[in-house]
Specification:
Distance between the termini: 93 Å
Strand content: 5-15%
Radius of gyration: 30 Å
Largest sheet: 5 strands, parallel
Structural class: alpha/beta
CATH topology of the largest domain: Rossmann fold
Helix content: 40-55%
Number of domains: 4
Strand order of the largest sheet: 2-3-4-1-5
CATH architecture of the largest domain: 3-Layer(aba) Sandwich
Number of helices: 20
Oligomer: single chain
CATH superfamily of the largest domain: P-loop containing nucleotide triphosphate hydrolases
Order of helices and strands: HHHEHEHEHHEHHEHEHHEHHHHHHHH
Shape: extended
Length: 465
C-alpha cells in the first residue's frame, strides 16, 4: 500500500523523501540494519530493538514508553525516532523544543488520546532538543508517559542529568548514542554514492577527497552527506555542462570528485593532517611544545590546523588540561582552572563555538609563566616508592581513632598544626629513611616565587625540632 499523500508525508505523519530532498534526508536509514555506529543499542533483545521491531503485541506492551536519546549531532537520534514509528505502524508527530510550547504539547497528547479511544492506533511523539523545554513543558509530558497515551522519543545533545527533569528522566529509558567513528561515516558516504536513493553511482570520490570530507565531518553523518552533495553537485555541473534550457543528462561514466572539487564546494582549504598517522602526532606535538615554549602565535596556528582538519575538540581540550598541570603548574595555578573550564565548556557547547574556548585556554597557557616542578616532584616520589624506599609511618602520625590504638603508641606526641605559630607544627612527617628528602623545589617564576619564599620559611620551622 502506498503511504504517501499529497502533503509530502506518509499516512503515519512521517516526512517523505522527495527526489529533490537533501541527500541526508534521502539517505535516512529505512531499517535498523542501515543504522551506523550504534551497535551497542541494537543487539538482539535490546530495549530499543524491541521498541522498533516488537515481535508481538506482548513485546510491544513490554517495550519502554519513553526514551531519551542523548548524543552528538549527526549520530542518528532523529532517524531512530522515525524508525520507531515507521516500522511499527504508529502515527508520528514531531515537535521542536525551540518553537513548541505547552499548548502544542497538550494538543498532540489530546489527539493521541482520542485516537486510542477510537481505535486509531498509537502515537510516537518525537521532541527534538528536549533540553530546551522549560520545567513546565517537561512536566506536561508526564501524564502521557505514565498512561501510555504516547510513545515519547526525546532527543538531546546535552547531558540529560542536567537538562531533563528528574521525574521525566526517571520514567524514561536513557540511551546514549556514541559519536560516529570515521569508518562509520565512510560507510554512509559510500552508500550514498552508490545507492539509488542517493547519487546512484553518478560520481566517484577519490580517496584523498573522501578523507578530507570525513575530516571535515568530524563524526557528523549529516554534515558528511551535505558536503558530499555539494561536491557531487559541483562535479556533475562541470562534467555534464548541458545546453541552455536542456535538462542535465545523467553521465554515462561517473564523474570524478577530487580534493579540489571538495575544497571549492565548501570553500575550505584542505589541511595536510592525518588524524590516524604521523601528521596527527606531529601537529599535536608541535602544539604542546609551542605552548610550553610560550610561543602563543605558533600554538594558535597548530590549534587552527587541528580544528580545520576536524580533530575532536575534546581531544584538544584534554591535551590543554595536561599541559596546564605539566608545563605551567604552580607558576600559575589558575591556568589549570582555565583549562578544565574550557574542557567542560567544549563538551557542553561543541563546535564551532568551542574554538573560542580552546583559543582562550591556549593563550592563557602559552603566555603564563612555566614550571614543571610539581610534575617532577610526584615522579621523583613515585620512583622512590617503586624502588622500595617506603619505610613505616611515624607512630605519632598513625590513626588513633580505633580501640586499642593508643596502646600501640599511635598518635602519641602528635602536634596539631592549627595550635602552633603560623599553623606549622615542627615534627617528623616522612618515614625515617626518607628524612631530609626534597621532592619539590619551586622556581622563582610567577606565583611559584611566593610559594618558594613561604616554603623556605616552613621548611626551616619543620627542620627545627
Amino acid at each position: 500500500m502506498d503511504l504517501f499523500d499529497a502533503a509530502g508525508t506518509t499516512s503515519q505523519g512521517l516526512p517523505t523523501a522527495a527526489a529533490h530532498a537533501p541527500l541526508a534526508v534521502r539517505m535516512r536509514p529505512q531499517s535498523l540494519d542501515e543504522v551506523a555506529g550504534q551497535g551497542h543499542l541494537l543487539v538482539p533483545g535490546s530495549p530499543l530493538r524491541r521498541l522498533v521491531e516488537p515481535a508481538d503485541e506482548a513485546s510491544r506492551r513490554a517495550s519502554p514508553t519513553s526514551v531519551v536519546l542523548w548524543g552528538p549531532p549527526g549520530t542518528g537520534k532523529t532517524t531512530l525516532a522515525y524508525l520507531v514509528a515507521s516500522t511499527s505502524g504508529r502515527r508520528f508527530v514531531e515537535l521542536s523544543a525551540v518553537t513548541a510550547g505547552v499548548k502544542d504539547v497538550r494538543t498532540v497528547i489530546d489527539e493521541a488520546r482520542r485516537r486510542l479511544a477510537t481505535g486509531g492506533g498509537e502515537t510516537v511523539l518525537f521532541i527534538d532538543e528536549v533540553h530546551r523545554f522549560t520545567k513546565a513543558q517537561q512536566d506536561a509530558l508526564l501524564p502521557s508517559v505514565e498512561n501510555r497515551w504516547v510513545t515519547l522519543v526525546a532527543a538531546t545533545t546535552e547531558n540529560p542529568s542536567f537538562s531533563v527533569n528528574s521525574p521525566l528522566l526517571s520514567r524514561s529509558l536513557l540511551l546514549t548514542l556514541r559519536p560516529l567513528a570515521t569508518d562509520d561515516v565512510r560507510e554512509l558516504v559510500r552508500r550514498a554514492v552508490a545507492d539509488e536513493r542517493g547519487l546512484a553511482g553518478s560520481v566517484v570520490v577519490e580517496p584523498d577527497a573522501e578523507d578530507h570530507l570525513l575530516r571535515l565531518a568530524g563524526g557528523d553523518a549529516r554534515k558528511a552527506l551535505t558536503v558530499l552533495e555539494a561536491a557531487a553537485g559541483a562535479a556533475l555541473s562541470e562534467g555534464a555542462a548541458p545546453s541552455e534550457g536542456a535538462a542535465p543528462a545523467t553521465p554515462v561514466t561517473p564523474v570524478v570528485v577530487d580534493l579540489a572539487t571538495v575544497e571549492r564546494a565548501i570553500d575550505v582549504a584542505a589541511v595536510r593532517y592525518d588524524r590516524d598517522g604521523d601528521q596527527h602526532y606531529d601537529v599535536i606535538s608541535a602544539f604542546i611544545k609551542s605552548m610550553r615554549g610560550s610561543d602563543v602565535d605558533a600554538a594558535l596556528h597548530y590549534l587552527a590546523r587541528m580544528i580545520a582538519a576536524g580533530e575532536d575538540p575534546r581531544f584538544i581540550a584534554r591535551r590543554i588540561v595536561i599541559a596546564a598541570a605539566e608545563d605551567v603548574g604552580m607558576a600559575d595555578p589558575s591556568a589549570l582552572q582555565t583549562a578544565v573550564a574550557a574542557a567542560q565548556a567544549v563538551a557542553l557547547i561543541g563546535m564551532p563555538e568551542a574554538r573560542i574556548l580552546l583559543a582562550e585556554a591556549v593563550v592563557h597557557l602559552a603566555t603564563a609563566p612555566k614550571s614543571n616542578k610539581a610534575y617532577l616532584g610526584i615522579d621523583a616520589a613515585l620512583a622512590d616508592v617503586r624502588a622500595g624506599r617506603i619505610g613505616t609511618v611515624p607512630a605519632h602520625l598513625r590513626d588513633a581513632h580505633y580501640a586499642g590504638a593508643s596502646g600501640h603508641g599511635h598518635g602519641q606526641g602528635y602536634r596539631y598544626a592549627h595550635d602552633e605559630p603560623h599553623a606549622v607544627a615542627p615534627q617528623q612527617y616522612l618515614p625515617d629513611e626518607l628524612v631530609g628528602t626534597r621532592y619539590y623545589t619551586p622556581t622563582d617564576r610567577g606565583y611559584e616565587r611566593s610559594v618558594a619564599e613561604r616554603l623556605e620559611r616552613v621548611r626551616a620551622i619543620l627542620d627545627d625540632r
